[in-house]
Each structure stands twice: as C-alpha cells, then as structure tokens.
Specification:
The complex is a heterotrimer of chains A (330), B (367) and C (458).
Chain A (H helix, E strand, L loop, with lengths): L2 E3 H15 L3 E5 L15 H5 L4 E3 L4 H13 L3 E5 L10 H14 L9 E5 L15 H5 L5 E3 L4 H13 L4 E5 L7 E3 L13 E4 L4 E5 L3 H16 L3 E5 L2 E3 L3 H11 L2 E4 L8 H12 L9 E3 L10 H7 L3 H11 L7
Parallel strand pairs in A: 2-3, 2-4, 4-5, 5-7, 6-7, 10-11, 10-13, 13-14
Antiparallel strand pairs in A: 1-8, 6-12, 9-11
Helix pairs in contact in A: 1-6, 3-4, 7-11
Chain B lengths: L26 H4 L3 H26 L14 H8 L6 E5 L4 H6 L4 H8 L23 E4 L6 H14 L5 E7 L6 H12 L4 E7 L2 E2 L2 E2 H4 L15 E6 L3 H18 L3 E6 L17 H10 L2 H11 L5 H24 L14 H4 L15
Parallel strand pairs in B: 1-2, 1-3, 3-4, 4-8, 7-8
Antiparallel strand pairs in B: 5-6
Helix pairs in contact in B: 2-3, 2-11, 2-12, 3-9, 5-12, 6-7
Chain C lengths: L2 E4 L9 E7 L6 E2 L4 E6 L4 E5 L4 E6 L6 E3 L3 E6 L25 H8 L5 H42 L7 H10 L17 H10 L9 H7 L15 H16 L2 E9 L1 H16 L11 H15 L5 E3 L4 E3 L5 E3 L1 E3 L2 E3 L2 E2 L7 H16 L13 E5 L18 E14 L5 E14 L5 H16 L7
Parallel strand pairs in C: 12-16, 16-17
Antiparallel strand pairs in C: 1-8, 2-4, 2-7, 3-6, 4-5, 6-8, 9-18, 10-11, 12-15, 13-14, 17-18
Helix pairs in contact in C: 3-4, 8-9, 8-10
The chains are: A alpha/beta (330), B alpha/beta (367), C alpha+beta (458).
Chain lengths: 330, 367, 458
C-alpha cells in the first residue's frame, strides 16, 4: 500500500472530489497561486483552474458567508481557514448562518459546505493561532465536526465531508501534515461518526481525537513496556456525530477510561463524553473517569512550556497510573 | 475568478431627487400595463394591511418575541421585486414581511409563521425575522444586522459561477452599513465582479439611533466608492424611482456582471419593533412623513392621476387586502402548533433523508 | 356590538401593563389609528392604538391600574350602546399589604412620585414572595422534622462502602457481600479485581468474619487456604525486574558495623529541640533513616565512583545524588526517589521521605518519581533485622541495606566493656561498575560520617 503524508491524503481527497462533482470548488486564503499556506491545496490551481480554485482576500467573515450563500444554491464549497483560530472572525457565518438556516427555513434550505483547516497548538504560534474549537462548534446542532488523526482517516473523512449535505467542519493539524501513513490507491470513504480502535488493550481505555490519538498510542507503548499496563486506544475521528457505541464498548471492556484532548479542560469535548460514560456505563466503571487536556491558560508561546501545556505521552501515562495499579522499578 | 481589468461603466452619483416620480417616464415604468400597475398598487396595500393586522395579533399576545413592521417602506420591496426575472434572487434582514409578500409568499403562511404555527412558511421554526421561500428565489429573513450581506454575495457568486444571467438583490438597513461584514461583502462583490445589488433601505434610524449619531459619513451608498462599485441614491418613497434605478442596477448585473449599491431614502412609520416608544424622534417628524411621503398614498395618487385607479377600485383593493389579512389571522389561529417531534426535524438534511444517510453515530445529545 | 379593548402585549417580555393615562374620555369619538391611552410596559411607556371606529363607551380600568395582558381595559362601540362589564382583576391588590413593615412609607416617600405605582406593585410582589417563601420554608422544616429520626439513625450507623460501580454490580451478580472485602484501590476502594479474587479465593482471612477465622484458629488446620493467587501487575513487574537484576548484574557484598551511639545522642538532642520549635523550623522528628540518607549522600560525594551506572559501552558518572528509598506497599514494593539529597538538609530529607512514603502507600506516586534514581537505600530495621543484603535496583551501581540498631557489649577506648549501640550496613555492588575496594572505601566514609555526625555539617 502506498505510504503518503496526511497533507497529500487531503490533497488527493480534494482532487478526487473535484473530479467527481463539478459543483465542488475550493476557496480560501492562499489556496491557489501560493499553493496553500500549508501546501494542502498544492497543484490544484494548475489542474482545475481559477474558476474552481479561488484565492480570497483576508476576509473570513466575507468569504465564509459567501460560501454559505453559494452553497444554498447548490455549489459545494470547500473553504480553507488558514487556522481554525480565524473562525472567530467569521463566527456569525459559521454558527448562525450555516448551522441554523436549514432549521429556520423549516427544511427548505440546506447548506452543503465544508470548512477545513488546522486547529492545533504545539508549534509556538501563540495564543491567537492555537485554538482547537471542536468543543465550541460541536455544541451547535446543525453542524458536524471531524478531527482526523491519520492520513488514511483524513482522506476518507474529507471525501465523506464533501459529499455530505450538511455543513461539515474538518479540523486538521499542522503537526500531522507531514506524518505519513498507508493509504490505499483504490477509492474509499469513511462514514462520519464512526470511531476507530487504534490499539487493542484490556487494562484501560484511552479515548482521543486528532493528534492526541498519536500521543495516546505513544503513551500506550510506554505503559506496556514500563508499567506492564495494556491500554486500548479509541480514535473518535468525528466529534459530531459521535460514535457513542464504540465509546461504551471499550469502557465496558476495560472498566477504566482516560480521555485525552488538546482542548482546555473546562467544557472540553471530553467533559461531554465523561458525562455520557458515567450516565450510560456507570456500572462498568472500576475507577473515576480521568481527563488529560491542555493546561488551562492561554496558549503560551515559549517552546518548552508549550510542550508542557499540551498533552504528552508522559502526562497520559501518569494519569493512567493514577487509576491503574502502579508499577515498581525494583 | 476573473480579475478586474477594465474600468467599469459607472454612473456618477446623483443627489436624491426631491420631486416625486422623477423617473415616471423611465422606459421600465412607461412600459407597465394598467393591470401591472394595479397589481403593484395591490401589493403595496396588501403589505400595509397585513402589517397592521400582525400588530393586532401581537398585541393579542399571539406572536412571540419581536415584530418589526415594514409600514412606510413598502415601495422599496414592491418596486424592486416587481422587476425580478427567473434568475433574480432576494435576501434581506429581519424586517422581512414586506419582501416576503412582494415576492409572492401568501399572507397565510406568513401570518401562521408569526404565530409559530406548523402551517407557517418555516413550520413555525423561524418566526418574524426568518421567512424563507427558495422556490420564489427568496432566501430570507436574517436576524443579525448585516449577516445576510456575505450570503447575498454568495448567491451572486453561485449565479456567476453557473453562468446564469441573474442577480441577487440584497437588502440591508442604514444601521447595517457600519457592520464589518458588510464591507467585506462589498469588497468581494467589487473584487470578483459579482452580480449583486446591495439595496440600503435608509429609514434614518438604526433602532433608536439616528443616522447622524451612528455614521461618520451619512452618504451611505458613497462607501461603495472604496470598492469601485457603482452607486446611486434614490427616493425610496417613490415606486417609479425605485423601479427605474433598480432596473439600471439589474441590467448592469445581467449584462456586465457588476455589482451596484443603491441607497433608498425611506421612513418607517412605526417604531423599530413594537416595543419601541420612539422617544428618539419627534411625533411631528413621523406625522410629516406619513402626510407627505407615504409610499402607498403617493403611488395611489399617481395612479389616480394616470386614471388607472378609481376611488371604488381603491376601496375594493383595500377591503380585499384587509379581508385577506383577516383571513390569514383566522388561518393562523386555527392552525395547529408544530407537533413536538418537529423540534428535532430540519436540523440535519441527512437525518431528514434517512434513505440517503451515510453517517453513523449519535447526532443529537438529548440523553 | 361593543368591542372590548384588551391590555395589549407591547413587547417581547411584557406580561402585565399599567395604564398610565387615558388620552380619550368616555363618550369621545375614536377612529382607527387613534391613541386612546398611555401604557407602561416593562420596557417603555407607549401609546395604545385602536383599530376600531366608534365611541369610547367605557374606561374599564382607572388610570394607574396594572392588569395582565389580555385583560379588558376599554369598550368601543356605537353611541349609547350598553356595555357588559367583566370583572377586572388588578395584578396586585394594595389592601393585602401586611402592616408590620413600618419603615416602608419612609422609603417610599423618598422615591419619585412618577414611579409610585410601579414601586408599590414591586413592593407588593416582593412581600408576597417573602410570604410564599416563608410558607415554603415552614413546610420544608416540618418535612424534615418528621423525616429526621429515620435519617439520623441510618446516617450515624451506616458507613459508606467504597466500591467502584463495576465492582458493586459484579458483587451483586455473584452474590458476594462486598462489606467484608478489603479493597485494593485508592483509599481502600473495592475494585473489580477484588471481587473476582474473592469469587476465586474466598474472602481474605484477615477480615473474614466466620469460616476463615475459625479454620485458622484450629490446631492442625491449614495455615491458609490452598490457592493459586493471581499475579497482580505490580507483582509481575517486581518479579521481572528483580530476576533481571539478580541474573544479569554480578553482585558483590560488603558489610560494616557502625557505632550508632553518637547518632542516637544527636538525634535525641535534635528531636528534643525540634519538637519545641514551631513549624516550619520545628514540629517534626528526625528518624534514623533520615540520618542514614543524609550520610549516604555525603559519602557518595566523597566516593562518587559508587554513584554510577553501568551502560554496557560506558559507565555513567552521575553528578547528583537522587536517592531511592524502598517502601513496602500493600501488594509489593516501590522505590520512589528523592532528588538531590546531597544538597538537602536533614529536615528537608525527613519531610520528603515522609511525604513520598505516604504517597507510595496511597499509590499516588508519579511515574517520574519512580525512575531516575542513582542509589538506593533499603531498611528493614523496624522488623528487627540486624543485617541483610538487597538486590541492586538497576541502573544503580549499588544498594545499601540498613539493619536495626542493637545494644551490644563492646570494648571502649579504655578497654572497658560497656553497652554500645551498633548498626550493621550491607552494601550490594554491581561489579561491572564498582570494585570491592571502591565499595569498601565508600562504607568506610559512611561509617566515619555516621560515627562523627558533625561532619555532615561540613
């Protein structure tokens, strides 16, 4: 199977969908002539021309709103946000318009738009460029939120997102763009709302999404070799819709859960999931549900401190050890 | 996206004509048949009578939330939409009843919507500020000031992208002009040469704040200059003037694929919403506008002069409109509220079309 | 027929309205669009517009009255028409005001006359609310009174059982009474594993109420029930690590006896003073182990070759002493470390040892506290063990085993037989990194420090 980068996988997904459906267009800052700020849309202008690959001014409220308006008439815009942090200047469009228009029109209108771009910290871009708004946006009924963690998932989920008739927001990660993974040559899609068991284990379930899945997998390795703990890692892939059954299944199996996300702790995505677990799998818990999230302060710039601020494998490990029998090195 | 290369045909700004019907002889007006003129008049009256009836329903406690009446501004919605062709579209803000009726929505579906009934145009899910009729190229009804303006640009973008000879008329108020997103929309419209017509209904007050107290420059349309967009100021009380200047903009959109900003001088006879006691303006001012600039009366007088309308016909049209409004109130009264299961319908296209569903997992989090 | 005009809803949040002023008097002609009254809503004062033509036949409520939205306030109809008046209920009746609040009037006088009506209404509804609240409180008190005897007995006798949800469910399913099970989780919480273990092996003897106790007290009875005890994760790791250490590290052993008298004297002097001092200077007691850790760290400074690690292709010399201390916990043994003991005072060491031992027993250690040590001390003095040798804790190059202090007859400097306090220290060394002579030099340095504890100050 070919091994390609996460970036290339998204690029392939976009190209395949541009080929499949002429209503699909790509729009965003620097997506065309610059080839993408993170080179995700590299080469698309050359292949599909300026009518479908469109550079926008730095004007998120304007061009996201424009995309929503165009989608009401059947265009299928895939909008790039250079960072999801910039969604905040287009919040009215992203939340009020895209999410509500179907409901407020009694189902007469729908809005098949995709908004995609990176949402992560860990690269020292400071507090204004490091937001992970999947928790904020998934509170809004009418929206769908996807956070792929691997090249394979990124491609399959992106294709599903573009074909979806509801607004789907895809949160990528600049630290994953260069990560490679196996992606089959034949076409495939991954349904939204289907989690993936990325590692089987019996002692504890680590549930994560986006890049935190990779960190959780590292932690699981350490736990196995250093502490003799056999951790299971579940990748949510989609936040809304959410694969509740997969979550409950792993909890019923291991009876212990550590939830990992890059959000700040208060009202993070995992707060909702923790609620759900205690509600629906209370009798399967052998320990309190634990969370690992970013340290509750604005994102710090300083490189070593930011590493401490966002979740890492050691922090996941020590949280797992809090609810699993601890080991000894004697 | 095509880039601007040539200078666009752009008329120079003209000051607003104070004389009524200065554009009565514009070809777009002179070609109107007698029947068409009567229909236009009928629509003005229908909006007026409908709005009066909604106020009563509100006072009877049948309408929730806010109610923003269009009384005094009817010539704009009726005049502009009377020019719509098959690929011309409309989107507006929250004072949307007039535009809804003008594009052909029924009083019944509008009144029922106001009362939150299942028979409303949005099944009672949108309310006063959120009327929609995509089958009539009417894209709402938007509650956030200025929020509809990038959507209007998007509709125009789609038309251009699909190479349709059409335009989007995007209405906004004088208060919206100070919203950032309006300027972003204007920039995109100018930059990408979108067939969008931004129609500023300048009724002089953004809620209770007068134009002078809210805008550094009170020549609102002139802001289009910054985006190299043609602009115009029009007497919005005069139906003929509205039609004539809007037609120029529509032709510019259809033939040259260019945007226009038109500022239409108008006046709302009522408060911003029904809970407005209008402390910010003199009663005399309102009375003066009602006396001298009521768009319904002005057009009525014009048509009497043109021998299109007679006193009898006027009375008949008014009675019919009042009865239609009354019947719509009865229709709304008798209509059921949406059943409880409607709460979770129309949230996701996919959930409403399970035969096409590809997603899995939990989408609603009620338990 | 006359039309009744009702109090209109004039804002999104309006539920009642106050008729401030009539603009038309009874008998006046009115036509559609006329304003007949001023209404005060929650948002503003507004004029009431009518949509009827005719005459104002009746003002049903008086100026100043507050009524609910929808209540009839006027009648309009043909001249001379008769009006059937419905009863109008005002929102708040002034008569109901309880008399006890005398200073009310005082407060009210200070207010502007224009807002008098609303003031009064607000006052009234507040008072009404007060009364309702009081009633509510009374009812609640009563309920509590009747319920309390039962509540008290249950709460005073029943101790909350700490058990995880899945363990509780499992116990119920298997018919096991969890009350007598000693939980292995944090704070003794009963976990799923405990229930499974009880299912397999029965209730552990210590707390077993009947069978187990009887069985063990009988002569000839088995000392414990024959069982195959499942290996816990921790036990498994300990087994693996120690086999690895004992089979791959070539151990050598050295032993030395130390005169502990000066140490005991110093310790009792210090403790006497320290207990008299308020924290943070005092309020604590130093243990013999604290002194041994301090001395062992100082000795490593003198003989740094022992503070090393065998790394296959090189020997790592450590620049700091991170002292691991073996702590016995319920199901095994852990060796948490104290960092930089060569820099710390006795008091610091003492408080850190206490803290780390407590957290080890509560299983609250962090992973980084369990690795990264450079030397380990193991003490079994509290069990009366005089001397022993421990298995090296890799990657340390040595481990010190500390026995108990025993009184012994010794020959002093003047050749008299006196009562001495002796302590024996065993050193296990990794022969790949440390030689016997180096280890001996280390023990000699340590002996000197412990016998002349003042040196530790230098």
């Amino acid at each position: 199977m070919p091994v390609i980068t996460y970036r290339q996988a998204i690029n392939d997904a976009l190209a395949e969908e541009l080929d499949r459906d002429e209503k699909v267009i790509i729009m965003g800052e620097e997506v065309a002539e610059y080839d993408g700020a993170y080179k995700v849309t590299e080469g698309l202008l050359k292949r599909y021309g300026p009518k479908r690959i469109i550079d926008t001014p730095i004007s998120e409220a304007g061009f996201i709103g424009l995309g929503i308006g165009a989608s009401m008439l059947g265009i299928r815009p895939v909008m790039e946000l250079m960072f999801w942090s910039f969604a905040y200047v287009a919040f009215d469009q992203i939340v009020n318009n895209a999410a509500n228009i179907r409901y407020m029109s009694g189902g007469l209108i729908h809005c098949p738009i995709v908004i995609r771009g990176p949402a992560n910290g860990g690269t020292s871009v400071g507090a204004t460029h490091s937001h992970t708004p999947e928790n904020i946006l998934s509170t809004t009924p009418g929206l769908k939120i996807v956070c792929p963690s691997t090249a394979y998932d990124a491609k399959g989920l992106m294709k599903s997102a573009i074909r979806d008739n509801d607004p789907v927001y895809v949160m990528e990660n600049t630290l994953l763009y260069g990560e490679k993974g196996e992606v089959p040559e034949e076409e495939y899609t991954i349904p939204l709302g289907k989690a993936a068991l990325k590692r089987e284990g019996s002692d504890v379930s680590i549930i994560a999404h986006g890049r935190c899945v990779q960190i959780a997998l590292q932690a699981a390795e350490i736990l196995e070799t250093e502490d003799g703990i056999d951790a299971e890692v579940l990748d949510l892939r989609s936040i809304r819709p959410l694969d509740e059954e997969a979550i409950l299944q792993t909890v019923r199996k291991t009876n212990r859960v550590v939830l990992v996300e890059e959000n700040k702790p208060f009202c993070g995505t995992d707060a909702q999931i923790a609620y759900m677990i205690q509600d629906k799998a209370f009798d399967y818990l052998d320990a309190p549900i634990k969370r690992v999230s970013s340290i509750d302060a604005p994102q710090i710039y300083s490189m070593p401190l930011e590493k401490i601020q966002i979740p890492d494998a050691q922090r996941i490990r020590s949280t797992v050890l809090e609810i699993c029998p601890i080991s000894s090195n004697t | 996206m095509s880039k601007k290369t040539t200078s666009k045909s752009r008329p120079t700004a003209k000051s607003v004509s104070t004389s009524q019907n200065s554009e009565a002889n514009a070809p777009i007006n002179t070609k109107l048949s007698k029947e068409e003129k009567i229909e236009i008049y009928r629509n003005l009256v229908r909006i007026r009578r409908f709005e009066e009836r909604t106020l009563r329903a509100y006072q009877q406690g049948k309408i929730g939330g806010f109610l923003h009446l269009y009384i005094g501004q009817e010539a704009i919605a009726v005049g502009t939409t009377s020019l719509m062709g098959p690929d011309d579209h409309v989107i507006t803000a929250y004072r949307d009843h007039g535009h809804a009726l003008a594009v052909g929505m029924s009083m019944n579906e509008c009144m029922a919507e106001l009362q939150g009934k299942h028979t409303g145009c949005s099944k009672g899910k949108g309310g006063s500020m959120h009327f929609f009729a995509p089958d009539k190229n009417y894209w709402g009804g938007h509650g956030i000031v200025g929020g509809q303006t990038p959507l209007g640009a998007g509709i125009a973008f789609a038309l251009k992208h699909e190479e349709k000879k059409g335009c989007c008329m995007c209405f906004l108020g004088d208060g919206a002009v100070n919203q950032g997103v309006v300027h972003e929309s204007l920039n995109l419209a100018g930059l990408w040469e979108l067939p969008v017509i931004y129609i500023i209904e300048n009724n002089q007050y953004s809620m209770g704040t007068s134009l002078e107290r809210s805008s550094a420059s009170t020549m609102l349309a002139k802001r289009a200059d910054s985006y190299d967009i043609a602009w115009e100021q029009v007497n919005g009380h005069s139906l003929y003037d509205v039609r004539a200047k809007t037609w120029e903009a529509i032709e510019r959109a259809h033939n040259e694929c260019l945007p226009t900003v038109i500022e239409m001088a108008t006046y709302r006879h009522r408060g911003h919403s029904v809970s407005d006691n209008e402390k910010y303006r003199d009663k005399e001012e309102t009375e003066k506008y009602k006396r001298t600039s009521d768009p319904v009366i002005l057009f009525q007088d014009t048509l009497i002069d043109e021998k299109v309308l007679t006193e009898d016909l006027i009375k008949k049209i008014n009675t019919e409109a009042r009865e239609e409004a009354e019947k719509s109130a009865q229709f709304a009264d008798q209509s059921p509220f949406p059943p409880e299961e409607e709460l979770l319908k129309d949230v996701y296209w996919e959930e409403d079309n399970p035969e096409h569903k590809t997603s899995q997992g939990k989408i609603f989090f009620n338990d | 027929m006359a039309t009744l005009i009702e109090m209109p809803k004039l804002s999104d949040t309006m539920t009642t309205g106050t008729l401030i002023n009539w603009l038309k008097t009874e008998g006046d002609p009115v036509s559609s669009g006329d304003m007949i009254a001023e209404i005060e809503t929650d948002k503003a004062t507004m004029e009431l517009e009518v949509f009827e033509d005719g005459f104002l036949l009746k003002q049903i409520i008086k100026a100043g009255a507050q009524v609910e939205v929808g209540a009839p306030i006027a009648a309009i109809g043909e001249k001379g028409e008769k009006v059937e008046l419905p009863e109008v209920k005002e929102v708040a009746k002034p008569a109901k005001r309880p008399p006890q609040k005398e200073n009310d009037t005082k407060v009210k006088e200070e207010k502007k006359a224009s807002s008098k009506e609303t003031e009064e209404a607000a006052q009234k509804s507040a008072e009404q609310a007060e009364i309702e609240k009081k009633e509510l409180v009374n009812t609640r008190e009563e309920t509590e009174k009747t319920a309390s005897p039962i509540k008290l007995t249950t709460s005073s006798t029943e101790k909350r059982l700490k058990i995880s949800p899945v363990a509780r469910k499992l116990a119920a399913e298997k018919g096991i009474n969890p009350e007598n099970i000693q939980g292995s989780g944090p704070d003794g919480r009963i976990l799923k594993a405990d229930i499974l273990s009880v299912e397999k092996n029965g209730i552990p003897t210590a707390s077993a109420p009947t069978q187990g106790a009887v069985a063990t007290s009988l002569p000839g009875a088995p000392i414990a029930e024959e069982a195959s005890v499942p290996v816990s994760t921790m036990r498994g790791v300990i087994a693996k690590r120690l086999v690895e250490s004992k089979t791959t590290v070539p151990h050598f052993y050295l032993e030395i006896e130390v005169d502990a008298t000066p140490l005991i004297t110093l310790r009792s002097e210090l403790n006497q003073r320290l207990t008299k001092l308020p924290p943070p200077q005092g309020g604590t007691k130093l243990s013999i182990t604290d002194f041994v850790i301090k001395a062992a760290s100082e000795a490593l400074r003198q003989v740094p070759a022992v503070n090393t690690s065998w790394m296959d292709d090189h020997i790592q010399q450590h620049s700091a002493v991170h002292m691991a201390v073996a702590v016995a916990v319920s199901d095994g043994l852990v060796t948490p470390k104290i960092e930089n003991t060569h820099l710390k005072t006795l008091r610091q060491i003492s408080s850190e040892v206490r803290d780390i031992a407590a957290r080890a027993k509560a299983k609250k250690l962090k992973p980084n506290e369990l690795s990264g040590s450079t030397f380990t001390i193991s003490t079994l003095g509290m069990f009366g063990i005089e001397n022993f040798f421990a298995i090296i804790n890799p990657p340390n190059a040595a481990i010190l085993a500390v026995g108990t202090i025993v009184k012994k007859p010794i020959v002093d400097a003047d050749d008299n037989i006196v009562v001495g306090h002796r302590m024996r220290l065993g050193l296990s060394g990794d022969h790949r990194a440390v030689d016997g002579a180096t280890g001996a030099r280390y023990l000699a340095a340590l002996k000197e420090l412990l016998e002349t504890p003042a040196l530790m100050l230098a």
